[in-house]
Write a structure and sequence with these properties.
Blueprint (H helix, E strand, L loop, with lengths): L1 H9 L9 E3 L2 E8 L3 E7 L1
Antiparallel strand pairs: 1-2, 2-3
Length: about 45
């Protein structure tokens, strides 16, 4: 998860918060492509 976050930020995406534990998963959210919400998470 941390590596994917680093890859996306290196590619220029502005991600609002770094990965964190939430609802039993570890991950992060971001919006892209005309404000579509994406979730990247793993258990």
């Amino acid at each position: 998860m941390d590596a994917e976050y680093a890859r996306l930020t290196a590619a220029g995406l502005e991600l609002p918060k770094p990965p964190r534990r939430m609802r039993g998963t570890y991950g992060f959210y971001f919006t892209a492509l005309d404000e579509v919400l994406f979730e990247v998470a793993a258990r």
